[in-house]
Amino acid sequence: MISRPETTETAEPDGVADTVAEVRPEREGAVRRVRKVRTSVRARRPSARNRRTPFVVLVLGLLGGGLVSLLLLNTVLAEDSVRATKLKGEIADLQLSNESVKTELIKLDTPQQRAKAAADAGDVRDWKEPGVITVPADDEVSQVSKVGTDR
User: Fold this and answer.
1) pLDDT tens digit string along 71-86?
2) Helix (H, G, I), strand (E, B), or coil: what is residue 34?
3) What is the reported pLDDT for 92?
4) Rounded to whole angstroms, how far apart are CA atoms 87 and 94?
């Protein structure tokens, strides 16, 4: 019957382990043989923590990129909202200005204002013989006097 060797490892600073195998003799009087075998240390499998690191970095990168994208989108929308608010304010100011111009035009279009403007231009009202302007079918303008009317 062959006995199984027992192995022990001792670490050395150069990263190589010495493996010592001792064979136990089957009999008591037999000589012990000791073999010294030099083997290099096997590379360890990366731990589960080390295997997860690239995945975690990828997920964090995607989340960070998504967050930055949402921030930029929100900034652009806010900028457009501010611009729209400014334009609405400008439109309101222009509408107010338009209404004031219309009100001024209505004030200037009264009969009193027209009479004053005509007097300033040198037109004089002829109260003795008022006339009516008629447009015949051949588009010639002629003045017809109506006697006996106050207008």
Assistant:
1) 999 999 999 999 999 9
2) strand
3) 97
4) 10
